[in-house]
Amino acid sequence: MSLGKAARSLINPVREVLRASAQTLKRTYGAVAEARVVLENELDTIRAAGTWKAERIITSKQGARISVDGSGGAILNFCANNYLGLSSHPEVVQAGLEALRSHGAGLSSVRFICGTQDIHKSLEQKLAQFHEREDCILYASCFDANAGLFEVLLGPDDAVLSDELNHASIIDGIRLCRAQRLRYKHMDLSDLENKLGEAQSSRMRLVVTDGVFSMDGDVAPLQGICDLAERYGAMVFIDECHATGFLGPRGRGTDELLGVMDRVHIVNSTLGKALGGAAGGYTVGPKPLIDLLRQRSRPYLFSNSLPPAVVGCATRALELLLASNEISQSMAAKTMRFRTNMTQAGFTIAGSAHPICPVMLGDARLASLMADDMLKLGVYVIGFSYPVVPKGKARIRVQISAAHSDEDIDRCVDAFIQTGRKHGVVP
């Protein structure tokens, strides 16, 4: 074979490989381009509907007064879940620093391998004590706690009965389990009883509800739920993310507020709101359930342990609550001050006597525009619209904190009145 033929015999296969690679690359780029068009069209739809959620940039620590990029001076913050004002409490911050120094930045491990420190066990014990339950298990978030519970507890022979307006994390967690799923109308005890009747052939029945529904600030009728659960042989689960630390005489939550602590069997809640506001969630309940979650709950088994600084902050926040209920008890008067003054001004405020005070507006674009105008007046609030809330139910969700003064609340109300008049919401 001549040298030319030999060269061609080597080059031709290479050309074929390169041609095939080019075609594959072209198809890949084409798929990406098509996906980009689909995504951009979806984004344009969101913008056109007025439901685009821009992220404002905060340049300070969390608190009643914050600094916001592009806004001069201190801004009053009325939309954080910082119910007790502990996110930047000096003792809470110091405890985080001390844990960082003594126990490091992180564990680089899940709990069962080499990710359990003494401070994790101590916090779990304190949370169980706080809620007056047998045991506790920590998660990276309450979303993870909800994702990890139902799949472990319930099987195909069981039934779960869920309020139709439960938090998205509860809905997603229930989707992961194989139990019969029955959804009852929002806080409708009659419909719940009907569904419990339908589930009587199941091995176990679990009624699932938010203690406080975060978009409306309404409180679940736990006394009635517990009555029905006992009548029909069901367990009761509540998500207490918007209640732990400040509802009830000692801040234990909705079950304490309504006198059913001994009748609610499982509680999920968060460290990321009233209890320091950093991160983390947990489940408290019967010890056999907590032991089983440690063995089988996927978010627990496959997620890194909570960082020591987060554990330190949450532990100190909890210790402050265990020592005194003074902070939590200051919430009621401040909440009523805002609700009363806003109602008198002509606004519609949803929910009951809860620090979540939704100012109902209906129109998504109006909620967004009013929130922007409020920021210009030095008050930070955010408009909520679909899909966070149902269509036609857009609102500005105001959240009262123990860190707010009466003067702060009055200034917020004045800004709402000024903005509301501008947009024709109030006279």
> Can you tell me the number of structural domains?
2
The top level CATH class name of the largest domain: Alpha Beta
Rounded to the nearest angstrom, the distance between the terminal CA atoms is 97 Å
Give helix % range: 40-55%
Q: Remind me, CATH topology of the largest domain? A: Aspartate Aminotransferase, domain 2
Strand order across the biggest sheet? 3-11-10-9-6-4-5
Largest sheet: 7 strands, mixed
| Secondary-structure class | alpha/beta
Low-confidence stretches: none
Number of helices: 16
Tell me the quaternary state. Answer: single chain
| Rounded radius of gyration (Å) | 26 Å
- Kindly estimate the percentage of residues that lie in beta strands according to DSSP: 5-15%
Shape: globular
Named at the architecture level, the CATH assignment of the largest domain is 3-Layer(aba) Sandwich
> How many strands?
15
* CATH superfamily label of the largest domain: Type I PLP-dependent aspartate aminotransferase-like (Major domain)
Mean pLDDT: 93
